[in-house]
Specification:
By secondary structure, the protein is an all-beta fold. It contains no helices and eleven strands. Strands 2, 4, 5, 6, 9, 10 and 11 form a seven-stranded mixed sheet that branches. Strand 4 (33-39) and strand 5 (46-52) form a beta hairpin. The chain is globular. The relative contact order is 0.32. The model has no long low-confidence stretch (mean pLDDT 96).
Length: 124
């Protein structure tokens, strides 16, 4: 059974940093996309960052470029999202996700497996 478990969320002031982690278990697909998504109240879920497990290619939403970094540790089966220079508009529930395919890396609707989410709150 595939499980994705996020952690690392919390409350920070604007300009601060957080590092989210997502431990993946039961997932054996070698050619995969792994991504971070977020959803604020009343808004649709949006892609934040994604990485291909094949070659480490990374993809970011425009508003996250230069502030967020996605990475993976294959030895620990963990996906990370380093978030710097956080803004109040980054406040949302953050989810990690996985799919056994490449392509459309930031489109939430094509991902098969999801974690339960971790809350990030940024105050001004």
């Amino acid at each position: 059974q595939v499980q994705l478990v996020e952690s690392g969320g919390g409350s920070v002031q604007a300009g601060g940093s957080l590092r989210l982690s997502c431990v993946v278990s039961g997932y054996t697909y070698s050619k995969s996309s792994m991504g971070w998504f977020r959803q604020a109240p009343g808004k649709e879920r949006e892609g934040v960052a994604a990485i291909y497990t094949t070659d480490g290619s990374t993809y970011y939403a425009d508003s996250m470029k230069g502030r967020f970094t996605i990475s993976q540790d294959n030895a620990d089966n963990t996906l990370y999202l380093q978030m710097n220079s956080l803004k109040p508009e980054d406040t949302a529930m953050y989810y990690c996700a996985a799919k056994p395919r490449l392509g459309l890396p930031l489109r939430a609707g094509v991902y098969n497996y999801w974690g339960q989410g971790t809350q990030v709150t940024v105050s001004s």
